[in-house]
Write a structure and sequence with these properties.
It comes from Tahibacter soli. By secondary structure, the chain is α+β, with helices and mostly antiparallel strands. It has one helix at about 1-75, and strands at about 85, 105-110, 150-155, 165, 185-190. It is built from one helix and five strands.
């Protein structure tokens, strides 16, 4: 009987062992799946954070590169000191200075910031280096005219005596007039260093 009982215990132990093995295997499988999912999530989050950081750095770098290129283009395309007539994209409200909307790197030619004062002036070209920057002309001027009117001379002959008469008459009338062709007013701006 003992032998039979020992054999049954052995079979029972084997069965328990087999069940235990499969149960342990199931628990381990479940745990391994959980660990794999957690590790996958961690890797996804890490990859996402890395990608976002790379994108931010790329955007920052791209912005810096674009700013540098814009600066180089502005300096290379338009020489310093270039003066151009400029039509602002929007006219500021009354009392607001045009200086608030002038493009960066430019200044209004009003006599400040090293610019010539071109307010109410037109530009006259020159090849004489000593004439650059000189100003001339005036806002008003006078017209003078001189001429002699026809003369009338008369001599009287007769019993009463003789006489002579001369008349000079000058009359000049000049009205003020604006002598400008049709125009459009713009702002002169100059490229700064």
């Amino acid at each position: 009987m003992m032998k039979l009982l020992g054999g049954a215990l052995t079979i029972f132990s084997v069965i328990l062992g087999i069940l235990g093995y499969f149960g342990f295997q199931q628990v381990m499988k479940s745990q391994l799946e959980k660990w794999a999912q957690d590790e996958f999530k961690v890797k996804i989050e890490a990859s996402k954070a890395l990608a976002e950081s790379a994108a931010q750095n790329a955007n920052k770098s791209l912005g810096e590169v674009n700013a540098i290129l814009a600066g180089l283009r502005a300096k290379a395309v338009v020489p310093i000191g270039t003066i151009v007539p400029w039509f602002p994209p929007e006219v500021p409200k009354e009392g607001v200075s045009l200086n608030t909307i002038v493009p960066q790197g430019w200044a209004i030619c009003d006599g400040s910031n090293g610019t010539p004062n071109l307010q109410d002036r037109f530009v006259l070209g020159t090849l004489d280096p000593n004439s650059i920057g000189k100003q001339g002309g005036s806002k008003t001027h006078n017209h003078t005219a001189s001429f002699s009117a026809p003369r009338f001379e008369a001599d009287n002959v007769g019993s009463r005596g003789t006489g002579a008469s001369e008349h000079d008459r000058t009359k000049v009338s000049v009205n003020e007039a604006e002598a400008m062709p049709p125009y459009t007013m713009l702002v002169y701006i100059m490229k700064l260093p």
